[in-house]
């Protein structure tokens, strides 16, 4: 079969042996595969991430000296089953799958490990237990976005955003746009989006952002503070404490300390917005920490595979909450597919191009600076080679 192989940071189309499904595995013909921002980073910085992955107990993440078939966002058609499968789906059935397989007791990340070739190829292997049938009303393009949308859904859930909270999305690439979609699908009323690219700002409006900001012209943080509930200066927070004490101390029958505790429990004390950092390049976490209002919750969704630095004192003085998110669980993956099928999220604006395997290398190079693209899909049967 034909496949796009990554070796030493270079991508090339090669003829390789088609995979054979093992115990509990299913062979799929790839119909669509998405190019993920993580793939762009892993191509160049996989060694650093592999070191981190090994430190947390996964020692099979791709390294530059290996030859890896990438691609972990995909939809395919059932071709054949390995031993001990339930064989629930007829050949030709469209399915999606969590991108992981297991060899013995060892799990491997599909498309990000030498031991689990991915979907930038004619065929890919999946675990039957991790696979789900695509509903009839979901197109191949839509189904291919199940995985990145599940990442966004998990990030929004971990962010614990209330409907009346303001959410700020920094970076409107594919994952930022997916986060906006999921924020609106879960009922968040006010979503502020910020991106340098005019094309991506237009996409942010299409997927439901309420306020869209060009950070070279306006600050997203000014847009947040304009909502009237957030504080950007420590002196404002200190002033609120003085004003509260001045009022409460003049009401002798009121136990002022109990009032403060009750106000905090009810969410009436000052807090910040929920911010989603969706860029994933060095310096962005520090940039967000510096600009965000006091007591913001910052959810780091963008995958930065390089070393970075922050000023802890900035987070301490502003009492910021920093959360990092990774992946999703099988239930979130399933729920995401059902949300797409049910029309709760319209992912069609995210797909901005479809190319064949021969166009993947050029697409990787272009996506580093392409302002008008979001999700680029690969159709192995396509002969298109340019974006």
UniProtKB/TrEMBL annotation:
<keyword id="KW-0479">Metal-binding</keyword>
<dbReference type="InterPro" id="IPR013154">
    <property type="entry name" value="ADH-like_N"/>
</dbReference>
<dbReference type="Pfam" id="PF08240">
    <property type="entry name" value="ADH_N"/>
</dbReference>
<dbReference type="Pfam" id="PF00107">
    <property type="entry name" value="ADH_zinc_N"/>
</dbReference>
<dbReference type="InterPro" id="IPR013149">
    <property type="entry name" value="ADH-like_C"/>
</dbReference>
<dbReference type="InterPro" id="IPR002328">
    <property type="entry name" value="ADH_Zn_CS"/>
</dbReference>
<keyword id="KW-0560">Oxidoreductase</keyword>
<dbReference type="InterPro" id="IPR011032">
    <property type="entry name" value="GroES-like_sf"/>
</dbReference>
<protein>
    <submittedName>
        <fullName>Zinc-binding dehydrogenase</fullName>
    </submittedName>
</protein>
<dbReference type="InterPro" id="IPR036291">
    <property type="entry name" value="NAD(P)-bd_dom_sf"/>
</dbReference>
<dbReference type="GO" id="GO:0008270">
    <property type="term" value="F:zinc ion binding"/>
</dbReference>
<dbReference type="InterPro" id="IPR020843">
    <property type="entry name" value="ER"/>
</dbReference>
<feature type="domain" description="Enoyl reductase (ER)">
    <location>
        <begin position="9"/>
        <end position="378"/>
    </location>
</feature>
<comment type="similarity">
    <text>Belongs to the zinc-containing alcohol dehydrogenase family.</text>
</comment>
<dbReference type="GO" id="GO:0016491">
    <property type="term" value="F:oxidoreductase activity"/>
</dbReference>
<keyword id="KW-0862">Zinc</keyword>
